[in-house]
Amino acid sequence: MPSRGTGAGTRIPRVLAIAGSDPSGGAGIQADLKSIAAHGGYGMAAITALTAQNTRGVTAVHVPPADFLARQLDAISDDITVDAVKIGMLGDSGVIAAVRDWLAKVRPAVVVLDPVMVATSGDRLLQESAEAALRDLLPLAHLVTPNLAELAMLLNEDVQETWPQALEQGRRLAAATGTVVLVKGGHLRGAGCPDALVGLPGALSAEVVEVPGERVDTRNSHGTGCSLSSAMATIQARAGNWEESLREAKPWLAGALAASDTLEVGSGNGPVHHFHHVAVPPMPGAFTAQLREDAEAELEEIYGLEFIGGLVSGSLPEDQFAYYLAQDALYLNGYSRVLARASALAPTEEGQLFWAASAQQCLEVESELHRSWLSTRTVRPGLGPVTKAYVDHLTAASASGSYGVLAAAVLPCFWLYAEAGRTLHARFVAAGEPADHPYAEWLRTYADEDFAAATRRAIGLVDAAAQAAGETERAAMAEAFRQSCRLEVEFFDAPRLHA
Ligand SMILES: Nc1ncnc2c1ncn2[C@@H]1O[C@H](COP(=O)(O)OP(=O)(O)OP(=O)(O)O)[C@@H](O)[C@H]1O
Ligand SMILES: Cc1ncc(COP(=O)(O)O)c(N)n1
């Protein structure tokens, strides 16, 4: 019999699940394949039985002829080296005999046996008459992973209610079979959810190696046993150490349970999220569409500001307009510097060119402000508190070292300004563009199609940066954008408060 239980050293372990099918994807081979892939293995599946089930329970079981399972197993081992095997639902004694023969012939380096008998829903997944045959199969495994009810059934004993009693039962099963037993605390009561490896003297670093865990408050535990045993087989093929394998698999499973709600699968005991640790990049356009949705409140606030109302109607006091222009000029100078930094950080030449051109354009607009608008005005306010806060925020974003964060921080000055400008101009046109309007010339500058086009390109660049970013960086991008939106609102409100 194989006794090593280790296939250490394989780079991508080739892991075979011999198990039943759960068409709803939460347990059985479907869970096994996800779990194997989640741990970096190459998954294979020989199907022992078909079940009709969902998160509420099993409605039918069909076990194909055992000969056909033998054909599947031979087809695999005739061609492929199997680094680890995970065995789940077996159905009946004919299937068990086929698996036993194949194991004896091939002797895979790692064999994990999850003695599936009854589903979480209470439905039988192994004929009662096959229980003895399953017991006889245990010594062919290197690791057996029963839940508390299965542990008791395999020993013909009562189900244990306390953890120390369960561990004692685990010892008896290890002694009876000569394999390492993983005693699982999933069905215990209480806040803790421990698991423990129990082995004969010398098999592990101690006779009982416990890995503690917190109980995750969820009813989505469908397939946890399948997922854990497949994870153990896959990690063991690499690590060659059961204790290390459990220490890696257990927190992963806790994360999969904690993230299970995000899947929204079924109305019963739902599946766990096997790939909770893998970030999925947003679809093109999705990140910036969300930013735009989040900025709606700020845009509405801008439209409601006294400054904006006065600018459109012409009733805005001149000193407030002058203050606004002066702050705009000061802001643009700082803004140009951070745009130049965005150009320096941009990952593509297209982005580099765009931000550099925008930085230059900004300085041109600033000098035009001085030439045409500020030179005729006598009031020269210094750097206002909002202007300073906004430029400081952008400078901090440029010092963050993240191109994505910086690009997101500079975006509202394009986007909110372009949208607000378009609306203001439309209102001015709707009012008949009165000739004696004091701010007519200024309002006309808002109808700039080149600026609208530049805004579209800036949005595209931020979206591309979001797709390339990880989840943490994307969250920082959204936060930098949101803060700039707030500062846009404050910037338009500043003349009322500080002029
Ligand atoms: N609520 C939970 N919080 C954290 N871990 C859990 C929870 N429920 C189960 N587990 C873990 O899931 C794994 C499977 O344990 P369990 O005792 O439920 O086995 P099982 O009954 O064979 O699984 P299944 O529910 O798939 O039949 C163990 O590692 C266990 O600690
Ligand atoms: C095909 C198949 N194999 C195993 C299980 C056990 O999983 P659970 O106890 O979580 O229902 C299952 N329900 N279906």
From TrEMBL:
GO terms for cellular component: cytosol. Residues 22-273 form the Pyridoxamine kinase/Phosphomethylpyrimidine kinase domain. The lineage of its organism: Bacteria, Bacillati, Actinomycetota, Actinomycetes, Micrococcales. One of its GO terms (biological process) is thiamine biosynthetic process. Residues 306-494 form the Thiaminase-2/PQQC domain. This is Hydroxymethylpyrimidine kinase. It comes from Pseudarthrobacter enclensis. InterPro entries: Haem_Oase-like_multi-hlx, HMP/HMP-P_kinase_dom, PM/HMP-P_kinase-1, Ribokinase-like, Thiaminase-2/PQQC. PANTHER family: HYDROXYMETHYLPYRIMIDINE_PHOSPHOMETHYLPYRIMIDINE KINASE THI20-RELATED, PHOSPHOMETHYLPYRIMIDINE KINASE. NCBIfam families: HMP-P_kinase. Gene3D superfamilies: 3.40.1190.20, Heme oxygenase-like (1.20.910.10). It catalyses: 4-amino-5-hydroxymethyl-2-methylpyrimidine + ATP = 4-amino-2-methyl-5-(phosphooxymethyl)pyrimidine + ADP + H(+); 4-amino-2-methyl-5-(phosphooxymethyl)pyrimidine + ATP = 4-amino-2-methyl-5-(diphosphooxymethyl)pyrimidine + ADP. Pathway: Cofactor biosynthesis; thiamine diphosphate biosynthesis; 4-amino-2-methyl-5-diphosphomethylpyrimidine from 5-amino-1-(5-phospho-D-ribosyl)imidazole: step 3/3.
